[in-house]
Write a structure and sequence with these properties.
It contains two helices and 16 strands. By secondary structure, it is α+β, with helices and mostly antiparallel strands. The protein folds into two domains: 49-105; 110-383, no CATH class. It has a twelve-stranded antiparallel barrel with strand order 4-6-7-8-9-10-11-12-13-14-15-16. A two-stranded antiparallel sheet has the order 1-2. The termini are far apart.
Length: 390
Amino acid sequence: MRTTRRGLAREVSPQGVTVGPVVEVGTEPRQDFDPPVPPNPPAPSGVVIMPAGLVRDLFSDAARAGPVRTKASKLRTFLLLGVGALIGGILFALANFLVVPRLLRGDPAEPVGLDDALEEFRGGGADSGGSAAAPETDPTLTGDAVGVPGQDPSSLESSTDVAGPESGTENQSAAPGAAAVLRPPQGVYSFSGKGSESTKPGGLPAETSAIGPTVAAVVRHAGADCWTLELKLHTKHSLVNTYCAGEGSLTTPGSESEMVTFGKGFRNSVRCNPAVALITPGMAPGAAWKGACALATSGGTTGNSTLDETWTYVATETVLGTPTWHLRSITQSSGSATGSTEQNLWISQANGLPLKIRTQIRAVSSAPVIGSAVHTEEMELTVESLTPRT
């Protein structure tokens, strides 16, 4: 009796290992039992002989899974590296733009109070006889606060010559009247102020300080006819201009300024030889003249520059009900610091005090390590009272 079945036929070697392909077969004689499969021969000690089909299946699975696992691993590594780089960049940016500048700058600049300026003025030994010079202080700046620059204004008078407008002009009759001696009373004057200054060294973010809304200005007499005007722009910057008065005339032999930026103190000393004339008897609107000065920088960095000034008498104008000479100067600097400065002064015809000051500065100076630093300044000051506090 014959039966028919469908199944898989395997070609078996004498050792019982499958060596042939899998095929489909048709009707075959019925058998009461499947033919036995000879056992595997004994394997050498420590060796296991696996059936060929199982070996093939294992390698087939490995071939299918291997590339997938490799691509997933590479993608995971790439993502981890990308996230790490992003976090590192954010931390670096925060440190560079927030932490490092904050550590270098220290406390921010603040306005100098009028009471503080008055206390300092009273402690400076000023007297009505005009024989006291500005108080001496340590020129090395180590903190955020700027002290009164120590200087003897009379030492700035390097020459008795004066560079300025000629007094004998055809328009002499148009000149406004002049006070006998252009020297204001000593004391602390209050100026309303607006503006800011900024210093940007190299690739670091700029340090910016506001000027105003109130600026203390201290007048001190020094010598027979000279006097100083110290502008306390804020706790990190003070500027002292020296003036010398004559009969209806006013000259400036130079100035001193002290500044703290990024934790470093700087002193800028300007010396003019001959002294630059500001007011001369009989000068007329439209008069122009030249001035030559030298700038020496010390402290956080050192350098020397030449200042070429061009002054113009613009017109007679009124500030706080007082007639003034409106002067304009354009200064070009060359040397270790290059740039330009435009300054407008409204000088009282009654006593020589600048009642209004407008300044615009842009200067580029060399600096150690960072290469260069750009300083910009723009401010406008207007006196609030003609009577000083003493």
